[in-house]
Design brief:
The protein has a two-stranded parallel ribbon with strand order 1-2. The protein is built from three helices and two strands. The longest helix has 14 residues. It has one domain: FAD/NAD(P)-binding domain (3-Layer(bba) Sandwich), CATH 3.50.50. With 93 residues, it is α+β, with helices and mostly antiparallel strands.
């Protein structure tokens, strides 16, 4: 079996994994892989779906410093809004 070499391996495509991948690219490191067990990115915001799902801290803490979102709909956003932000940031970078 041939083996592949990566300069970095990121485990998980939640907020931390997305942020790590973006920072690696910003540092000029593009030979990396993200390992994710789910069928989409977003971590808990992709996996969990139930009535009232929302953040329990002010939503601004879910914004990357390099991609602030001044348009959050409320102080404690819904899971769907957080997931959409993660998707948008991943698509942009």
């Amino acid at each position: 079996m041939p083996s592949e070499h990566f300069d970095a391996v990121i485990v998980g495509a939640g907020f931390a994994g997305i942020g790590a991948a973006i920072q690696l690219k910003r540092m000029g490191i593009e030979n990396f892989v993200i390992l994710e067990r789910e069928d989409d990115l977003g971590g808990t915001w992709h996996v969990n779906h139930y009535p009232g799902l929302a953040v329990d801290v002010p939503t601004t803490t879910y914004s990357y410093y390099f991609e602030p979102n001044p348009n959050w709909s409320r102080l404690y956003s819904t899971g769907d809004e957080i997931k959409q932000y993660a998707d948008d940031v991943a698509d942009k970078y």
